[in-house]
# Entry
Amino acid sequence: MANLRIGYLFKKKYVKYEKKKYEIFEFIDYVVGIGFTNTEKNDRCNVLSGKYNGTYASFINKNGNEEEYVFLADNLGDALKINDNQVNFTSIREKRLSSTGKYYLRDSDGDSLARLVNQDLLDYLQKGDQKEQSDFAEDEFEKTSDISSMYSSIKKTIISQDEQIMQILTALFKNQKVVNSDLDMDLIAKLKENILIYGSTGTGKTEILKRISKLYNIPIVIEDATALSETGYQGRKITDMLEDLCLAADNDKELAEKGILVIDEFDKLAEKSEDSQSHVSRLGVQRSLLKLLDGTLFYFGDKKFDTSKLTVVGLGAFTGISEGDDYKQLTADDFMKYGIMRELIGRFSKSIAMNPLSKEDIMKILRESDFSPLNTYKKLFDMLEVHFDFSDEFVEYITELAIAKQSGARSLKTVFDDCISSALFRIFAGEYSSISLVKPDDENNKPYILTKTKEKND
# Structure
């Protein structure tokens, strides 16, 4: 059952100032979302407002593993009251943004937050923000307009998919050149490509699009196909996705019509004959997507949305479609046998198969990716002033644990967290000044070696 979730999103960080350590909560956004349980019994929250619009709340942390986000629920009655009891969350969000401070500390009860009033500390934090914004202007601005810079940036996170990243960026940039041109609409329709990206779980399909959405200066939303249903069934509709895209474009409909709609878990729309009701619903969603991909007028609220210039990207693992992990030889017939309508698969003029990840690829991801748990935890331990290192044997050990879960690189963080979770409490308590990650053996059955601080040794 779906339920409404509203509240404040904060980014938690620790700041040293005047020889004291402060736990600072920086206000990021006022979030409105719909919570629901998908067909795989996973709880999801689809964010419908602000900078995270179109993203699942559970993904916000994953967009930056080294950062911790905190959600503080708002009272729905109070939220409606400030907007004269009108259910307009765009207006409510604007009013909450205008009345919310930038920085907060834990209140004395420890369960709530209180606005930071220490002016000296505020000035110190704001100077830091100005520097970060300046660095962003110098380092990130070019990435929003330069395909080469975007390619180089994404390669730092997504490993062993260089050709796939290049193909995706090329298709997206070509589409934007075409839809923003003065070409005839018939020619635009022939030149514009809808893209289908497929490959094993954990190869980086969704993460590539997330990285692009952070770097690209056009509206992009990532929707989950498992939440979609045809008209007459409970669930989200095609128009709901288009409305989300409008919100991502700050209600600039013309800009949204040239945006990018990413449909994740696309393979879950395949017909399943063993469940007649799901079979009918999935088939109905596939038919609805035909109109979306063809370029049609959709109506919602007082808006008329033309999808003729919209880029649609489908992402799917298509587990079991091929005997092995190499999907590069798949044909339209393979997708039809899997349960996708021929007419629908034919609407995707660009198909991109992800590379299967070998053991060596996953080890490379661990060592080199910006979001590898090894690299994100290094930033954490640097912040804590705790020495951190690891052995080659540990990298191979973690890789084998991840491979056993059959989720590609996706499970790396899970197995890594499991390995060091028992050590973190005492590290946070200040008992240890060093942690070395090693492969467990008979003498040491833990995957780490800790060194006590000098104070604890004395």
Observations:
- Residues 61-66, 132-145, 276-280 have pLDDT under 50 and may be disordered.
- The two ends are 57 Å apart (CA to CA).
- Residues 38 and 226 are 6 Å apart (CA to CA).
